[in-house]
Amino acid sequence: MIPRDVASPAEGSRETTLLRLSRWALLATIAGLPTYVVRWHYGPLPTTLLETLILVTVALYAVARWREGRRRPVATPLDIPIVLLLLAGAIAVVVAKDHRTALGLYRAYFVEAAAVFYVAVDLIRRTEDTKRLVLAFAIGSSLFAALNLIVFARAAITHDIHVGIAPNALYGDSNYVAMYLDPPIALAAGLALFAGTPRWRWIGVAWLAIVGAAMLATLSKGGYLAIGGLALVAVLSVRRWGALILVGAVAAALLLVRVPIVAQRLSSTDISIGGRLEIYRATLQMIRANPIFGVGLGGYSFQFRGSIPEVYPHDIWLTFWVEVGLLGVIAFAATLAILLWRGARAWRRVQGFERSVLWGALAALVMWIVHGVVDSPYWKNDMSVEFWMLAALIIVCIRMATPAAVPRA
């Protein structure tokens, strides 16, 4: 008998061409997360390149499994929280004043992102599959990081860097770039620290160098705070090198704050904290007026100091509560708790390549929790899929470390 949260692996010899194509489409989707900025319309319906990649992936997978006679997604420990989160999102569409906008957000942030999770949990079954997924993410995030570094370098050469609005590519806001880069940094650090072969450790080092440099170039205080959270996770989990990592992290932080542009950026920390508190107070007033259902997806709107429109309240928990209500924030908290609890318990027994990936995925969630104190990770097309990719990696790594139950006689 197979436990409910450990799906039986597909037999590679019976794998169909459609299923193999769906796996390659999944890799393209993960590599292409930033492509949501490429937008067009099918008649009145807006879409993005990322959404098209997701739909192709899910369609190939669904048809392949349907032909095999499978009608249900694989079972996971997150099924109940996911159902509750989807239910909360559906209610938020009804509650929202602009149903069309709310439905688009629900489709992108919840339905499609959760679909990617289920596809990945089923298709990523061998160490080779895990390696390819991580490599696809490394390539996509590194290319995106390189674009941002090029834009930053050009601005530096022309003395056109505005500290409050750091130059960046594609996203238009360096804070969005920083939130997207949290998971690549964590996974790269996991490879650099725990990968079992020199080749993968060097891949981790190279990946960490480019995405880490791009993170520094965002001048995001939330991003810097998240890196501090990553350093703390490393100190606590890598006991043999914990003291060395701590000394290195402190030394790097002291050097970083002496860089003039970073020092100038950090000098406005008090102002940023005051602004965040003002936004939080306004958001809490909205929640008090709508404590159960919130204001609906896309319903949050606050004119910061009467002139700057804020689409989210710069805190992950307040964002979930005000957008998808009390049920939504509980479901998301349950999802995080299950992933962190199960992942942390399993990490000691996970071996090989999956050990480095599990550490990186868990560290990425910690980074988002830390970053989420001052911003709203998850709440964009790329980051919602990114979150469920991390969830899938954690479930897959735990599954690989769990021996299949012996059938009863």
Describe this structure in words.
With 409 residues, the chain is mostly helical. The protein has one domain (78-401). Helices cover 69% and strands 3% of the residues. It has helices spanning 17-31, 49-67, 79-95, 99-123, 127-157, 174-194, 198-218, 221-237, 242-256, 260-266, 269-289, 316-347, 353-371, 381-401, and strands at residues 39-42, 45-48, 302-304, 308-310. It has a two-stranded antiparallel ribbon. A two-stranded antiparallel ribbon has the order 3-4. Helix 6 runs antiparallel to helix 7 (198-218). The N and C termini lie close together (10 Å). Mean pLDDT is 91; it is low at 1-13 and 405-409.
SSE topology:
Layout: H1 17-31, E1 39-42, E2 45-48, H2 49-67, H3 79-95, H4 99-123, H5 127-157, H6 174-194, H7 198-218, H8 221-237, H9 242-256, H10 260-266, H11 269-289, E3 302-304, E4 308-310, H12 316-347, H13 353-371, H14 381-401
Antiparallel strand pairs: 1-2, 3-4
Helix pairs in contact: 1-2, 1-4, 1-5, 2-4, 3-4, 3-12, 4-14, 5-6, 5-7, 6-7, 6-8, 6-13, 8-9, 8-13, 11-12, 12-13, 12-14, 13-14
Question: What can be said about this structure in brief?
Answer:
The protein is mostly helical. It has one domain. Helices cover about 70% and strands about 5% of the residues.
